[in-house]
Amino acid sequence: MKLYFSPGSCSMAAHIALRAAGLPFETVRVDLRSGLCNGVPFKTLNPKGYVPAIELPNGQWLSEGIALLSFIADSAKGAALLPENGTWERYKALEWLTFISTELHKGFSPLWNPATGISDKDLAWERLSQRISIVDEQLKRSEFLLGSKFTVADAYLFTVLNWAGMLKRSLERWPAVSTYMGKVRQLPEVAAAMHAEGLKV
Fold first, then answer.
1. Is the peptide bond before 41 cis (omega within 30 degrees of 0)?
2. In degrees, to the nearest 5, what angle opens at C-alpha 11 toward C-alphas 10 and 12?
3. Which range marks the domain in which residue 96 is found?
4. How many domains in the chain?
5. What is the pTM of this model?
6. Who contacts 121 (Cβ-Cβ below 8 Å, separation ≥6)?
C-alpha cells in the first residue's frame, strides 16, 4: 500500500502505526503548500486534497486519521495496536482517538495559522492546555494512553503533541506528558518514522 504523507503532519501517526504493524508500505510525499504530489495536483488523486491517505494495491483509497489508524490496527491483529472489536477497551480507545482528533488536533489549528493574532494564539494555547491536562492525568495512571502497551492512539497522541515543540510551546508543566513524549520518541517505530520524514528524533 501507499501512504501519502507530509513530514511532521498528522499523517505521521499513520506512518508510525504502519511501522509498528509491520505491514509493507511505501511513502509518497505531498507538498501541502503547493498542493502537489509528484508534480500533479494531489486533489486529482484524493479529492480532499490533504493527508493522510492510503492507496491500496486494488486501487481503493482511504482517508481520515482515525479510519486509517483503525484499518492499520485491524490489518495487523498480531501487533495488538487496538483492543478487539466489541470490547469495552475498544470503545475507550475510540473515545481517546476522538478526543485527540477533535480536542487536540483541531485545537492546534489556530497556532499554525499565520493570520491568527498573538493574543488569539495565546487563548488557543490556554484552551489546549486544559485538554493536555486531561491527558497528563491519564498518563499518571498508565505507561501509555490505553495501558501498558503502545497502540495507534499513542501514535496519534505523540504526533499531535509533538507540534508543541515545533511551535515553540513547552510541555514542561505536564510532567507525565513530558516523560511520555521522551519515551515514545525513542521507540524504534517512532524514531524510524521521524527519521524517514527528515525530522529530529
1. no
2. 90
3. 88-190
4. 2
5. 0.96
6. 110, 111
